[in-house]
Write a structure and sequence with these properties.
- It is a single chain.
- The chain is mainly α and 405 residues long.
- It folds into two domains: 2-234, no CATH class; 251-404, no CATH class.
- Helices cover 74% and strands 0% of the residues.
- The protein has helices at 2-23, 26-48, 57-68, 82-85, 93-104, 106-127, 134-154, 161-184, 187-209, 216-234, 254-258, 267-278, 281-298, 303-321, 332-336, 342-370, 374-404.
- The longest helix has 31 residues, at 374-404.
- The two termini are 46 Å apart.
Length: 405
């Protein structure tokens, strides 16, 4: 069974690496570098201006550490057919879960290390803590995460919902108390408690698993839900066969479609607009990115950060909508339309201009209300206008040309 998980793990990683080359493309990496650089600069300036008696530092770190402990789920990599073909091997599943635990522990370890390292300067500034204690806190967090994964493994067995929630609540309260003890008493106290918590989960849950059987339906459903969340994230960057969009009438937008005259020159514009407004693939992506950017801008009162966020998300919105160009290439009838080839490019460029202008207008309104100086908001709006012009006039045509090659 251990070898089976190893085989599935290698196939899974190979498939994910194939998708990652589309997610972390050159443009996205460059944008992330600039965004992280801006956030890092803003964070460092914020730390410099914090008062020495900043009492909210430790509670804020406690909340952040509790949240990052939730990163990562147990990846069982189980499939629908397992409940028939692997069921006779249920007695050997502990070996399978041991490999699953080691595989699933890698991502949380990386995420916890990076995020806790980023918050450590705040703890040093606000709590008179030493940087050397970081490794003690990190080990405490990793032990608590190990206990969390062990609870997730136990949750795959035939237990009641109330028992599952009880163990989850026990882990959450114990983790919060452990981190509080480490932050407010002594880091070694929190480390000692985390060792005890992991030991308790290992001993008690191992015994309880011997008294119940695996719930194959629940295990497969959890794994399918986990993979669906991963595919939804990847779908923000490229098409994923496992994700299918839904179609809705959305009568609210009928007047918008009716304004497009049904003429030969508007053939593709009508098709693209209809696809965007009534499909969930691109409209959902647009709304999600718009919401994230709007939320960040709402809590940002710094011009540099606000401009960086607005410019980055305008680019991301436009970049993620470009693939709509090939939306109807699979339809035979579109190849028979008596329309010139350049009409497709003109339609996509026009649609991107309209959508990016709507996004810029929303970002501009938020900036006008949030930024302290109106001149700063106007400067941000001007930067977005220039970016949209450069993006649609120069970048989009080159991108579409590459898509046709």
């Amino acid at each position: 069974m251990s070898e089976l998980y190893g085989l599935r793990s290698s196939r899974h990683l190979k498939k994910m690496m194939k998708y990652m080359q589309y997610v972390f493309n050159d443009h996205f990496v460059i944008v992330c570098v600039f965004l992280l650089g801006g956030l890092g600069f803003y964070y460092s300036e914020l730390l410099k201006n914090l008062p020495e008696d900043f009492v909210w530092g430790r509670p804020l770190i406690l909340v952040i550490w509790l949240v990052i402990l939730l990163i990562g789920q147990l990846a069982t990599l189980t499939q629908e057919a397992d409940k028939v073909f692997i069921l006779p091997k249920e007695a050997e599943m502990p070996d399978y879960f041991n490999r699953a635990f080691r595989h699933s522990f890698i991502l949380p370890t990386v995420a916890i290390t990076l995020l806790s390292g980023m918050t450590m300067p705040l703890l040093v500034v606000s709590g008179s803590e030493e940087f050397s204690s970081f490794f003690i806190y990190l080990l405490t967090l990793l032990l608590l995460k190990a206990a969390h994964l062990k609870w997730q493994e136990y949750d795959l067995y035939q237990i009641s919902i109330s028992e599952s929630r009880s163990w989850q609540a026990i882990w959450f309260v114990a983790s919060g108390g452990t981190l509080a003890a480490g932050l407010y008493v002594n880091p070694f106290v929190g480390l000692g408690i985390s060792v005890i918590i992991l030991g308790v989960f290992l001993v008690f849950l191992t015994r309880k698993k011997q008294q119940v059987s695996l719930d194959w339906e629940k295990m497969i459903k959890k794994e399918n839900n986990r993979m669906h969340r991963i595919y939804r994230f990847i779908n923000l960057f490229t098409d994923v066969p496992e994700i299918t969009g839904s179609i809705k009438r959305r009568k609210l937008f009928d007047p918008v479609l009716n304004k497009i005259k049904k003429e030969n020159k508007n053939t593709y514009l009508y098709l693209y607009a209809r696809s965007f407004l009534r499909g969930s693939e691109y409209s959902g992506l647009f709304v999600r990115l718009l919401g994230v950017a709007g939320l960040i801008l709402f809590f940002s009162k710094d011009l540099i950060l606000s401009m960086g966020v607005a410019v980055v998300f305008i680019y991301l919105l436009g970049f993620q909508l470009i693939p709509i160009y090939a939306q109807f290439d699979y339809m035979v009838m579109t190849h028979l339309y008596p329309t010139p080839a350049k009409q497709k490019k003109q339609a996509v460029s026009f649609l991107l201009n309209v959508l990016l202008a709507i996004a810029a207008a929303i970002f501009g309104l938020i900036a006008l209300f949030i930024l302290p100086e109106k001149q700063e908001a106007l400067l941000l709006i001007g930067a977005m206008v220039v970016e949209i012009i450069l993006f649609t006039r120069f970048y989009v045509p080159q991108r579409l040309k590459k898509m046709e090659e």
